[in-house]
Amino acid sequence: LDRLQPPFHLLAPMLAAALEREGRLVVVDFGGALGTLYRQCRPLLGSVRRLRWHVVEQAAFARIGHQNYENDELAFFDSLQAACAAEAPDVVLMSSVLQFLPDVAPVLSAVTSSGARYLLVDRTPFRDAPQDAVFVQEVPPSIYAASYPMRAFSLQLWFEWLGANWTLLHEQPSPEGRVHGSDGSPFDYRYQLFRKASC
C-alpha cells in the first residue's frame, strides 16, 4: 500500500495485549504476505517496548520475505508451528486467509495450543447456515486475472470448532460487507476478536 491505513480494530487488542505484558508484544500474522499489516500497524505501536511480528506464509513467500524484508522485529516462517516455536505469541492475526485453506480445523487447533491470549479474525466470510459453502472468487481484472476457491463458513460450525477455548469479545462487519454467492445465498465478511477462555 502506498499510504498509511491504520487498522485501528487490530491495533486496539494488540496494544491491550502489550499492556498485559509490560510493553512486550509478539504477533503471529498467519497469511501476512510480505508484512503489509506490520507496516500499517508499526507507526502506531511506538509505545511497545519490545515487538516481534512473525509472518506465516507459503514457502516461496516466506523465503522471499526472509531474504529481503526481515529486520529485528519482522520475521517470516513457512508454518504456524515454526512461528510459534520461535516465540510464543500474544496475538494471532488471521486476515483474509482462512477462507482459502482446504481444512481450517487443524489451524484453529494449533492456534489454541500456541499460548496466544488473543485471536483476531478479519475479512472472513460467514453465513447463517448449518454448513459451509464453497464458491469461486474472481479477482478483479484491475488487480490481476485469477480465480480461487473460497469457503464461506457456517457460523454454527465455526463456533463448534472454537469450542469453549475462546470467548468472543467483539464482532463487526468488514469493509467487504454482504456478498451473494453464485447460488444467490448471502454471506457476510466479518471481524471477530476472541480472548482465550482460560486467560
In short:
This protein has 199 residues and is of the alpha/beta class. The chain is built from six helices and nine strands; from the N terminus they run αβαβαβαβαβββαββ.
Description:
By secondary structure, this protein is of the alpha/beta class. The chain has helices spanning about 10-20, 35-40, 60-70, 80-85, 105-110, 155-160; strands at about 25-30, 50-55, 75, 90-95, 120-125, 135-140, 145-155, 165-180, 185-195. Strands 1, 2, 3, 4, 5, 6, 7, 8 and 9 form a 9-stranded mixed beta sheet that branches. The mean pLDDT is about 95.
How would you summarize the topology of this molecule?
Elements: H1 8-20, E1 24-30, H2 36-41, E2 50-56, H3 59-68, E3 74-77, H4 80-86, E4 91-95, H5 105-112, E5 118-127, E6 133-138, E7 147-154, H6 155-162, E8 166-180, E9 186-196
Note the main attributes of this structure.
nine-stranded mixed beta sheet; 37% strand; 9 strands; 199 residues; alpha/beta
**For the residues shown, what is the average pLDDT?**
94
- The secondary structure category is alpha/beta
Q: What order do the SSEs take from the amino end to the carboxyl end, as H and E? A: HEHEHEHEHEEEHEE
Give the overall silhouette: globular
| Main sheet properties | 9 strands, mixed
Percent range for helical residues?
25-40%
**Strand segment count:** 9
Strand content: 35-45%
Whole-number radius of gyration? 17 Å
- Residue stretches low in confidence (pLDDT < 50, at least 5 long) are none
SS summary, helix count: 6
The rounded distance between the terminal residues' Cα atoms is: 35 Å
